Amino acid sequence: MKQQLEEIMQRAKEKLSLVKEKSELEEIRLAFLGKKGELTAILKGMGALSAEERPKIGQIANQVREYIEEAIESKGIELSAKELEQKLKAEKVDVTMPSKKTMIGGRHPLSSVIEEISRIFIGMGYEIAEGPEVELDYYNFEALNTPKNHPARDAQDTFYFTENILLRSQTSPVQARVMQSQKPPIKIICPGKVYRADEIDATHSPVFHQIEGLVIDKGVTMGDLKGTLELFAKNIFGESTKIRLRPHHFPFTEPSCEVDVSCWSCGGEGCRTCKGEGWIEILGAGMVHPNVLKECGIDPEVYSGFAFGLGVERTAMGRFGIKDLRLFYENDLRFLKQF
Amino acid sequence: MKAPVSWLKDYVDIDISVKELADSMTMTGSKVEEIIEEGKEITNVVVCKIIEIEKHPDADKLVVTKADIGGGKILQIVTGAPNTQLNSFVPVALDGATLPGGHTIKTGKLRGVVSEGMFCSSQELGKTPEDFPGSCEYGLLILNDIGFKPEFLETKKGTDVKELLGINETVIDFEITNNRPDCFSIIGLAREAAVTMGKDFSAPKIKETGKEGNPADYLKVTVEDPELCPRYVARVVKDVKIGPSPKWMRDRLNAAGVRAIDNIVDITNYVMLEYGQPMHAFDYRNIENGHIIVRKANDGETITTLDNEERNLKSTHIVIGDEKKPIAVAGVMGGLYSGINEDTTTIVFESAVFDAATVRLGAKDLAMRTEASTRFEKGLDLNNCVPAIDRACELVEILGAGTVVGGYVDVKAKDNLPVQINFRPERINAFLGTEIPEIKMVSILEMLGMTVKDNMITVPTYRPDVKMEADVAEEIARFYGYNNIQSSLLAGKAATQGRKNKRQSLLDSIKEFLIAEGAYEALTFSFTSPKVFDKMRLSEDDSRRKALVISNPLGEDFSIMRTSMVPSMLQIISTNYSRRVEEGRIFEVAYTYHSDEKPLKNIPEHRETLVIGAFGKSEDFFTIKGMAEEILIGLKIRSYEFVPFEESPVYHPGRCAKLMINGTEAGILGEIHPLTAENFECPERCYVAEILVDKLVENAVTMPSFKELPKYPAVTRDLAVIVNKDVLSGDIEKIIKQRGGNLLESCGLFDVYEGSQMAEGMKSMAYSLVFRAEDRTLNDEDIQKIIDKILHGIRTQLGGELR
Hints:
The structure holds 2 protein chains of 2 kinds. By secondary structure, chain A is an alpha+beta fold. Chain A has helices at residues 2-18, 22-33, 38-44, 53-90, 109-123, 137-140, 152-155, 172-181, 222-237, 290-295, 312-320, 327-330, 333-336, and strands spanning 127-128, 134-136, 165-167, 186-195, 207-217, 243-250, 253-262, 279-288, 304-311. In chain A, helix 1 packs parallel to helix 4. Chain A is rod-shaped and about 130 Å long. By secondary structure, chain B is of the alpha+beta class. In chain B, the strands form 10 sheets. Chain B has a 7-stranded mixed sheet, with helices on both faces. In chain B, strands 3, 4, 5, 6, 7 and 10 form a 6-stranded antiparallel sheet that branches. In chain B, a hairpin with a 2-residue loop joins strand 33 and strand 34. In chain B, helix 11 (425-432) packs across helix 13 (469-480). The longest helix of chain B is centred in the last third of the chain and has 19 residues, at 780-798. Chain B starts with a strand and ends with a strand. Classes of the chains: A alpha+beta, B alpha+beta. Chains A and B meet through helix 5, strand 1, strand 2, helix 7 and strand 4 of A and helix 8, helix 11, helix 13, helix 14 and strand 27 of B.
């Protein structure tokens, strides 16, 4: 009987080694372990054995059954893995074929630049202030130390509706509005459209965008202005960017300066982009003029502040290497899709 | 302001290179636009003597000459110049020479005869015959005709002609800001240069002139309105001999960009450039009764100015008149009649100050901004009148141009007293963020001509821009060096919160939703042409025709502020379409401007509008509607509907809807009317949505409230109803939602059928309804009750039936 059991085990081993499909495993299980299976039949004949032999044979028979059960199970696992492997192999695709995409659009490059600059200043604690584009002469000029007949008005050929209502020629009127309605500390940037009567060409447009910034608090210094602009320039033009302040004149700041950054193309060596200068002018800035503070109800003996402004088109043209400003306003999709 | 370096050197010692000077001046606030090296393009042009002239064998108009360039070298030069004379001295461009305009001269053959260079005219040297009085109008520049003695020229043979003619000045062109009228002069710039370099400024010393006589014997001056002319100084010069001014003066004027005319006019211009004080010279005999009257012009009065143009004057202009007529437009230009002529014998010099704003507006009005008016309009120093006129008289004597009559006529309405400012060095340091020692501050201020005594700064009157402490701070910072100020970052100042407000953040979200839908952002001009209203096919009384009109537009196409975002969007579509871009989605957020006031008195309404445009074969009404709806969903706006709108002239009457949010109108969208599309040269089918940003912002849900996830299963039922073709899906949905109540979770249209199985004029609409209760599993009975209710509604309100 012992020999019979060993033979069964041997047969089961052989049969299992030939199995190719999972479904065959069930047949094998029935053939050996089922009610009419070979092992079951043998166990049924155990009654004829002596009391001495019975436990020994019983033990062997159990071992054989366990062996077969385990062998079937492990064969099953093995076959599953093989099946999956084949399935995955069959499902292979050419990953270099075109993707199925939902098309994505994009921001206008000028809007991207405004957004990028806004984020830098929001990170430094600035809020974004806005104001009307059709503006009072008072806010655009008079509150900013530029009375009627001031020669500085000539430099900004302004569009008028009436003597007192105009299209803002700068975003500075927003600053005046904020200073008149808000108590210091004030930390704002004002991005927006501005208008000047310039004929359209590759570098001029009657509509363009500016971003101005304003900080008013007790003890704000020109060093703070310089530090702020430095941080800004590094953020937008790269960590190695340097800035240079040149004295200049604006009616609403004193001291005033123009701000150059080291050329983003050559890093200051001098190249075509910077016309050999190594520097590119990007900003106007200064300490808020005491007359402006006074006009806006802020005591210049107690508070001081700085302001700066930059042209968005100019910055974007520099960043993206765009030579003709008109492209921004044509909105050719082949242009817009590049940003 | 073009400043010849040699002229600056009259007042300051410059021992650094011009480039270094220019760079450091830029850094102290006198920005250099350009360094012009006169004669830079002229090389290898030397003095020669023509020692032989023979006829050209093959050309009647040419001659073959021998030119002596010294050192025993003789060249053969062929020329066609009509004034080629034996023994005359002329400039000759040698083989390899360069001339202005990029010309290079090479040895070559002219009609078979070798020419080893070229004789030059004044034009070929980049000059004009007027620059060299005595020279021929045509032909060669004969050097012995323009004041050089032949014996002298003999010694100059072979030397560079630039040196001889003085075409070697270096000129620095400065950008002068409006606040610095003093820098519109050589003296002012020399002073800045001196402080920049830390050198001494040599103040001008003028020799006293005209000891005899009294101008009152000649002249009376009346100033009618002292506000318009706070000071008028005049001096008289008699026995005037008009002629060309000397070469050194003409060279400097030319280098500074002013044309030399005659000695007297040149003196006035020279003084203007040197002192920044415009001057004028009148021919005394043409001043009626010797009486000068400074007054407002009369409306309709005319004057012919020195440029030979007749000018119509207005009462807003200031004129210098005599007892009969205007003789000059004050501060702008003199009159032709009283100008200097060849036979002028007695002149009156004027050195006056006129009201800056009046001159500025007058010059703008007459479209004649002159060197004089650009100076006057910045506000001049009353105390500069006398030094300037004295300098002019000194130059008269130096040039031997006449006899100066002693004394002045000086009509002065007020004194220009120096401004005094408290000197608070610690405050200046606190303001700049610096630690500049007081002694350094004082030294800078003193170099600038200010005095500091007992903590009080006295500012010279030529610096009208320095009025208060901030101005003093700028002066100190300029010469301390802006770039020497230590950077800081608002350390110790109050902390502020940086952020976008709700509207700004939502606008960002709206843009992001649209970008995710494949749309590109556009930016267009805010003004447009009034013609767009007809192109939009608006009726005559459409409120959108009431646009703000710009009074000084760049042209009709940019003359009104837009009242609709549609034209610019259609323009973009048209541009892209015409460039064969086949499809696209575009959006823009901008203001439209509205006001009923006429004339405009207040700031008009700025209506922030989102416009979306789409064109191309994959677009239809439902794609533009989809883009609009994605925004609503993105902003979690629940209560909205699209209501058919047939009346818009802009849109296709059958494919246009108004967007209602919570019952109020928030926008309009649809397919553009084919005629409107045609007017804008757009493709036949294009789609636009206009949505008011404010409505989106007002209704957006920024803080959604959480609802427990469902515990019980949903039950789905399909419901198909047969209705008349005209019944709107929106109306059916409304009934389903109303009657479905709380248990209806969602409802979606999945099929519309109008085929052969339908009766004429009917359609089948099939919806998939999802029901769910929060507290139990719904059974058939529950559902059937609701379905019955819905069907009842559809039957009674829309005349529909279950299919």
